[in-house]
Amino acid sequence: MPHYLIFFLILCSSMQAQVAVIVHKSVKAENISKTQLLDFYTGEVKSWDTGEAVHVFDLKIKGKIKETFYKYLGKSASRMKSIWMKRLLSGEGDPPPALEDESEMLKRIKNTKGAIGFLDYKYVDTSVKVLTIIEFDKINDSEQDEK
Amino acid sequence: MKFKDLRIGTKQILGFGSILIIMVAVNIFSITGLNSLKSEIDDFDQNWLRRAIAFEEINYNSSNLRRQQLQYAFAKNKKNKEDQKDLQLAYIEKIDQNIDRYKTLREKYRNPHQDFSKEDSLYQSFDEKWENYLSLSIQFLQLSQQNKDDEALNLLNGEASIVFEDFSNDLSALVKICELNVVNSAEMAARTYKGTHFVTMLFLIIAIILSIFLTIMIVRLILVPVYRMENAAKKIASGDLDTRVKITSNDELGNLSKSFNTMTTALKEAREKENVQTQRLRMQWDVLYETNKKLEENSKSLENQKIKIERKNKQLELAMNKLKEAQNQLVQSEKMASIGQLTAGIAHEINNPINFVSSNISPLKRDLDDIIKLLELCTKAAKNGELDKECKNIENFKVEIEYDLILTEVKQLLNGIEEGAKRTMEIVRGLRNFSRLDEGEKKLADINEGIDSTLLMLRNQLKNRIEVIKNYGSLPQFLCYPGKLNQVFMNIINNASQSIEGDGLIEISTWFKNKSIFISIKDNGIGMPKKVIDHIFEPFYTTKDVGKGTGLGLSISYGIVQEHKGDIQVKSSPGKGTEFIITLPVED
What we know:
Largest interface: A-B, 14 and 19 residues
Helix content of chain A: 25-40%
Number of strands of chain B: 7
Low-confidence stretches of chain A: 140-147
Radius of gyration of chain B: 78 Å
Helix content of chain B: over 70%
Shape of chain B: elongated
Oligomer: heterodimer
Order of helices and strands of chain B: HHHHHHHHEHHEEHEEHHEE
Number of strands of chain A: 6
Strand content of chain B: 5-15%
Distance between the termini of chain B: 85 Å
Shape of chain A: globular
Low-confidence stretches of chain B: none
Strand order of the largest sheet of chain B: 2-4-5-7-6
Strand content of chain A: 15-25%
Structural class of chain B: alpha+beta
Radius of gyration of chain A: 15 Å
Order of helices and strands of chain A: HEHEEHHEHEE
Largest sheet of chain B: 5 strands, mixed
């Protein structure tokens, strides 16, 4: 399985920018659906299926990776903000911490139990677990997350 | 081909067809015009106006949000702050709703021919600033929650204020763009309306003019010729045969007018001919009348003649009846003559057997006397009981009278008498058969038998001199007048025997073939030349000496055979003999 996956990922990386959704190694889930991902990032759901608390991380820098990820979720950046603004106003929780860059993202995911985040695939290493890969030009086809 | 030469139907189809096409074109044009009008109205009503409203709403609600945020920042008690939060939530919610509404409108009315680049870039700018403002608002909230009120207020009045101004400007610009588009669309709709209206009216007027033109054409092309023809017909009906219809077109009505004119001409000619004929007829009638008068006179004389002819006819009929009677008498007399002829033969024939009888009678008497005497002698002796005594006397007497000889002689004499009587009977029977002549009804008879009885009648004439050879075939019973046929056979055989001088031969053959009886009577007598053959069946024609024949024999025979629907053929040549062949068809 890993061999096949790596081969597949290398093949894909040569073509387009890819966003990897990564989690802490302790997370039991092997994959994640789009709605699940959306629920985590809008604060609708705050724990994994196992009951473990979810720690969501966002990227601060604007760019292709963030844009792709938000597009994949079907929400604009401003709408994501307004959602979290509303959560904050109604006391339902704080927005995910926005991290400065990908190396920090990698570090925080590696060190936080139940953490989930996203970053450019090329920064991924074995210290984290990849749940799904979002391909830049296949966003509109969606449902790709079942990998 | 000119228009006026077309058929009426084609003309009408062309006329109404063009009107129809124009009307359809008008309708299609109006409908397309209306459609584009509707889409243009929709464009400003449903699209641009609503976009403008959405942006106005965003603008209004964002202003409210900012005011609430400011109030929130300055709020003292906690209860107040919670209320401010709820109000802020409501405003953000409303802004989100209007953004969604705008996005939906943008998706729905994405006209590819229109330039949206300015609007898009403005919206992009607004969106980024709005996100930015939200980020700042979040920071502000988090700061105020952490009770860092001063920092929060600074944020709100500093950076957030600038961003707010910026996106408010963007929103105002967007509203302006939308309003501009509203005006544009409305103007376009007005133009479309005017254009459609103008073209529709134009086509309508054309259609009306064409209709009027067409009506006039129909009146000219159809009604005028029809009216002309009606007038002409009226004139002709009143007797004016010189009337002609003016021909203006080459269509059905033109043809009709032509035919009408031809008909009128023909009518006129016919009328003239009729007049001539009427005169001729009158003259003929006069002639006929005179002829008729003459005929009537003639007819009267004819009537007279007819009466005369009838009278003559009656006389002729009487004469004819007399003639028939005479003919019958002749036939009868011929019969009698042939019988008379026969009589000599028959007398001789009968004389012979009667001689047998009469010449045998006296020796038989004598012999019988002797036998009676002997019987008396015997009877006497027996009576006296002296039979034994007289026996010798009787024996002597027997010797005396040559008793044995007498017995033989008596037998011979009786045989002779029997023979004579038999022959006589035969002759009488033959005569009777022959005289079946008088029997009036047809009977089934055997032809061979008839020939035999005829030969019997003629035996005297034939015997010793002529040998008769019979080749009789088996014949069916034939429905005929046997006596009459016998007369035929007798005539022919008689003629045959008479044609033979000295010794000769007569061959009689009969046979049945193809439902007919054939009788051939052939002799080897002197025969006849053709000159004679041509006349033999004519009455009163004879080659015999006066008194020997009546000249009726063969003619009567011919009549009899014809009566039986038969035929007689003759083959003869001088010196070789004659053959008569009689054919009698047997009816089923």
